Amino acid sequence: MKRAPVFDCVIDARARLGEGAIWSAHQQRLLWVDIPTGRVNRYDPVSHHNESWEFGRPLGCLGETDNDGVIGAFTDGFYQLALEAKTEIFLAGPRPAEHGHRFNDGSVDMVGRFYAGTMPLTGPSANDVTGTLYRLDSARTTKVMSGFHVINGLAFAPDGRTAYVSDSFADTQLIWAYDYDQDIAEWSNKRVFFDANTVAGRPDGGTVDADGCYWMAGVSGWQLYRITPDGKVDLTLNIPAEKPTRIAFGGTDLKTLFCTSIRVDNDSKQPQSGGVFATRLESVQGVAHPRIRQFP
User: Rounded to the nearest 5°, which phi and psi values hold at 51?
Assistant: First the structure.
């Protein structure tokens, strides 16, 4: 009888809102953030050492550039970060905090464009659908679409032809798929890909694997879900944290599944919540997370 994968807490970080996990294939490190503190983390699974740098204001997500740099999406815009020097250079707006928002989830398409979406600083509400998706092209930003409570779950199919985005709001809980023309960064043909009201967790961070399946972190549901390209759950994994947030495949063979989480204080059922968890999936391989490249 095949045993279900068991998750280990590889970083007992107790992060307030652990998020933004991406695997750097070049550095062989996991990059992730704690949103409220603006803390960037870099974890080495070989030495088990986690380095961190705090930038003092909410940081929703980040991406690695093609010259080994890091770009972060802060409440006051996109910044190029030098971690060891703890310096930052402003690249482009918008400045979401000026409108009561912060950046939340983000991802990079298969040719290197960085996307990040916003949500209200005070949390989602039924009447606020001003969550907006932006694209960073070198030193300028483009507004892609709006109309969300909480933008989440950004991911791109391995062939680059399908884009995914979700809304985590409790009254929505949907993941949509779009046809994506990566030559011109055009989104079209929006349709419901998966209704997360049918499972325990709300849709949080997403990623894809080499089979073209979409992975959803089921926040508030203690579970992760693998969803086939036709929108069917074919694998459910239990994780020892109520609020898993962002999934990333890593390791030299991209078969280690990492997941960040949100801290829940004073709960004996999940003493390591807010940590980063990991397990091996020998039958599933991830896709290397693209690096941000410069666009003319």
Answer: -90, 150
